[in-house]
Design goal:
The protein is an alpha/beta fold. Helix content is 31%, strand content 17%. A 5-stranded parallel β-sheet has the order 2-1-6-5-7. The radius of gyration is 23 Å and the shape is elongated.
């Protein structure tokens, strides 16, 4: 996979040289190219922003440098990439979208600063490319570089051969089809006792069925406590009788359609 990032802060993307992404680059599984937007600004101050039409606070990124930069990047490769634009006003970034993006051979990221990029840039490239405006959460950051790091890592770890264990991502929280979209439960490693705290006995039993059931129950407990919205969205056909019994104990009621809702007066654990 090839990834291009156009930014006014190339140094912000240095973490893409370490950890799993860095190793994937070293092995040739990932081709990451970072471009400085100011290289396509032609005045002596390398200006990339200006005041907004209609007034208001902040500055808006100019269309000319973005247009030249993106045209240059597009001309350097074969085919058409997906253009990903991190923005608080975009669609939510989910594991499902990460999987979809991981299947693309080429991604180009356009992280904005200030009040965003002149809207005409999106209109221009929507006629030529698959453009995805994506939000990583309901909050506002100083710029789009941090979301680029988030999205690239989420996507890169799904590429074949990037993770040491090819099965590792299949049971991730939010992985499509994984555990009915439940959060992962707690995990443990050696030593079996630490500061007087022991790991759950079932994990030492060697009984794979009981271990799987315990993990499933813990996932349900954590999801019920931290993300009740995910319980409400659970596909009823993905829940077995043990799931249903535990959800009842946790204060959930099963509706006529098989979906669960909070019992009246239920108290969180």
């Amino acid at each position: 996979m090839r990834i291009d990032v156009v930014t006014i802060f190339p140094e912000y993307l240095e973490p893409l040289s370490v950890s799993l992404v860095g190793k994937a680059r070293q092995r040739g599984q990932l081709d990451v190219r970072v471009h400085d937007l100011r290289e396509w600004a032609h005045d002596r101050h390398n200006t990339v922003d200006d005041t907004p039409y209609g007034g208001g606070p902040g500055m808006v990124m100019k269309p000319e440098p973005w247009g030249e930069a993106l045209d240059s990047v597009l001309a350097s490769g074969d085919g058409k990439p997906v253009l990903v634009v991190p923005t608080p006003s975009g669609i939510p970034f989910t594991q499902e979208l990460a999987v979809e993006l991981s299947e693309q051979p080429w991604l180009v990221f356009a992280p904005a600063r200030y009040e965003g990029i002149d809207r005409r840039v999106m209109e221009e490239y929507e006629e030529r490319l698959d453009v995805r405006e994506v939000s990583i959460g309901d909050y506002v950051l100083a710029g789009g570089e941090a979301p680029v790091l988030v999205i690239v890592e989420a996507v890169a770890r799904l590429l074949p051969g990037v993770l040491g264990n090819a099965q590792s991502h299949q049971d991730d929280s939010f992985a499509p089809g994984a555990m009915s979209n439940l959060l992962e439960g707690p995990v443990y490693t050696k030593p079996p006792q630490w500061r007087g705290r022991e790991i759950p006995e079932v994990l030492l039993s060697g009984h794979h069925g009981k271990v799987a059931r315990w993990r499933r129950d813990e996932a349900l407990r954590r999801t019920s406590q931290n993300r009740p919205d995910l319980v409400e969205r659970c596909d009823p056909e993905a829940l077995d009788k043990y799931d249903r019994r535990l959800l009842g104990e946790l204060g959930w009621e099963e509706g006529a359609d098989g979906r669960f809702g909070r019992s009246a007066g239920a108290v969180e654990e």
